[in-house]
Design brief:
475 residues; alpha/beta; Aconitase, Domain 2; Aconitase, domain 3; five-stranded parallel sheet; 15 helices
């Protein structure tokens, strides 16, 4: 087993005891909740007459069901209003801080935690959402958990888990212009498979990862779960420090200095032992898009769609089904594939730097006449900052809709959905059949810059072929 890694150090420091089941009981440093997975857990506490053990370690927001066009209460969707009302009641009774839409702090759970400085190196972070791995970008151990585990964390401040093996994913070299963190993680998933990470957590490292902004690292860690890993993380460094210095949590320099001593102590040792090491040449990565119905079915923009017969035998059937659903043929490239919807948003790519990069592509252009464009900031703070920079005007003038913060079309649990067999160029994390609200709909995953390029051309387009006066940010 691994030894001397950040994963081992943080796990050991949070381990309460070994359980008869073979799992370990871990103390939870930060518990994030939202409106979809928490009501049942609160109900379980009420049935047992239990209270929330550490309300100060739990933080709530609303994101999955909150409408992004009209947030007037009561919500038009009765189920959404019911979930919102239940969350309001639960957090008020428990004394849990809540980023209500009236506060100016509401947003996607994996955006608000990092931007407020709640997510910190060496923490254990849990949330009833699979993309909790996002927080690993800060050197935290971050896990998505189920409803019964949410109950356990609320009641005891701990969670039972099995320790995993650690795979070091080393991305070497330097990214070319126009290649982003989204392309990096899509390439990793393509190379290792959607089930390649089962039984592992991924430690991301190498020159490419170290050169990424915190937003870029969050994008990479966010999609660890799409690669089958239980979690993903990056060792904290100066980039991490600079991000945290600017957050609400560290207005006190003395507190920052004290915490930094701990952060430095939990980074992986130079002679750490890993259960597996994989190396990927970052200089060979190009803008990457999906051709199928899983995040692992991706290719570089200039590469041909593979023939199912070229793939391992256990992947051939799903490849044939995916190609039939998407209407693509082996040997073709995805360049020129027509799109109907351009979606900029999600916990993967809806931060300020993502919006800046996409705006640099669309500025001075119009989206294609037959394309519906949506820009959904990851949080109210992101929205306000973007508006202060005039990014909203850039998008509006190009023909995009500028929305309120929320998960939006990433998963179609709200009004933002595909209709019929529409094709979506999406900056989100999953392209499963029906994921964006229509069983006939088609989703092509790509970076925000590539979504912007698809919006203005009406088809999947290599963003590097568009003349831009602003260099595309690698975030």
């Amino acid at each position: 087993m691994s030894r001397g890694t950040l994963y081992d150090k943080v796990w050991d420091r949070h381990k309460v005891r070994a359980l008869p089941s073979g799992q370990d009981q871990l103390f939870v440093g930060l518990h994030l909740i939202h409106e979809v997975t928490s009501p049942q857990a609160f109900g379980m506490l009420e049935e047992r007459g239990l209270e929330v053990a550490y309300p100060e370690r739990t933080h709530a927001t609303v994101d999955h069901i909150v409408p992004t066009a009209d947030q007037e209460r009561p919500y038009a969707d009765g189920a959404a209003e019911s979930m919102m009302s239940e969350l309001e009641k639960n957090v008020a009774e428990a004394g849990i801080e809540f980023d209500h839409p009236d506060t100016g702090d509401q947003g996607i759970v994996h955006v608000v935690g990092p931007e407020q400085g709640r997510t910190q190196p060496g923490m254990t972070v849990v949330c009833g959402d699979s993309h909790t791995a996002t927080h690993g970008a800060f050197g935290a151990l971050a896990f998505g958990i189920g409803t019964s585990q949410i109950r356990d964390v609320l009641a005891t401040g701990t969670v039972a888990m099995e320790k995993q093996a650690v795979r070091r994913v080393e991305v070497t070299g330097k990214l070319d212009e126009g290649v982003t963190a989204k392309d990096v993680i899509l390439t990793i998933i393509r190379e290792l498979g959607t089930d390649g990470g089962v039984g592992y957590v991924y430690e991301y490292g190498g020159e490419v990862i170290e050169s990424l902004s915190m937003e870029g690292r969050m994008t990479v860690c966010n999609m660890s779960i799409e690669g089958g890993a239980r979690a993903g993380y990056v060792n904290p460094d100066e980039t991490t420090d600079e991000w945290l210095r600017g957050t609400d949590a560290f207005e006190d320099n003395e507190k920052f200095a004290k915490m930094k001593e701990y952060w430095d102590s939990i980074t992986s040792d130079s002679d750490a032992q890993y259960d597996d090491v994989v190396t990927i040449d970052g200089s060979s990565i190009e803008p990457t898009v999906t051709w199928g119905t899983t995040p692992g079915q991706g290719i570089g923009i200039s590469e041909p769609i593979p023939s199912p017969e070229e793939l391992p035998e256990d992947k051939r059937g799903s490849a044939r089904d995916a190609q039939a659903h998407m209407g693509v043929q082996p040997g073709e490239t995805m360049a020129g594939y027509p799109v109907d919807v351009a979606f900029l948003g999600s916990c993967t790519n809806a931060r300020l730097s993502d919006l800046r990069a996409a705006a640099a592509v669309v500025e001075g252009r119009q989206i294609a006449d037959d394309v519906r464009g949506l820009v959904v900031p990851g949080s109210q703070r992101v929205k306000a900052a973007a508006e202060a920079e005039g990014l909203d005007q850039v998008f509006r003038e190009a023909g995009f809709e500028w929305r309120e913060a929320g998960c939006s079309m990433c998963l179609g649990m709200n009004d933002d959905q595909l209709v019929g067999d529409e094709v979506s160029a999406s900056s989100s994390n999953r392209n499963f059949v029906g994921r964006q609200g229509s069983a006939e709909g088609k989703t092509v995953l790509m970076s925000p810059e590539m979504v912007a390029a698809a919006a203005v051309t009406g088809e999947v387009t290599d963003v590097r072929e568009l003349d831009t006066t602003t260099e595309v940010a690698r975030s």
